[in-house]
Amino acid sequence: MAASPMLAVVVEPAGLALEPRAPWMAFAACGGRTSLFFGPPYERPERRRRREATAATLCAGCPVGEPCRDQARRNRESGYWGGETEEQRAAAGFAPLAISRRAVRQAAVDSRVVGQDSCAG
Asked: Cα–Cα distance between 90 and 105 in angstroms, integer?
């Protein structure tokens, strides 16, 4: 039986517990660069492509890319995680819970259609 991963709890100064933080996050190359991985609402497509290209470069050299991607897939996160865009996760069958862009919605639909075709015998 595999041991479950330990989680560290980040505590706010007022003593309120925030979301658990996985230990691997301390080694992430992206620490403190949230705006690079989560675009503003109504971000223009050109700006998004440039932002995600910069994020991809940072992710490519990150020592914890795999657990980052796995967490994003497992929790159906929005944003750029572990070297993957929301569209890429949706196409792999892990669409974000809240889909705000048409391209992500279409990737999620396409992944279900492909999945149905591959199961037909």
From this structure: 8
Domain of 88 in residue numbering reads as: 41-116
- pTM score: 0.69
Q: Are 90 and 73 in contact (CB under 8 A)?
A: no
Q: First and final CA of the chain: distance in angstroms?
A: 35
Domain count, the chain: 1
Residue 60 covered by a domain? yes
Tell me the C-alpha distance between 91 and 86, whole Å: 9
**Residue 96 within a domain:** yes
- Measure the CA–CA gap between 82 and 55, rounded to whole angstroms: 9
Q: Which residues pair with 17 in a beta bridge?
A: 11
Compute the 3-state secondary structure of the chain and give helix, strand, coil in percent, each to the nearest 5. Answer: 50, 10, 40
Q: Write out pLDDT tens, residues 63-98.
A: 999 999 999 999 988 899 999 998 899 899 998 877
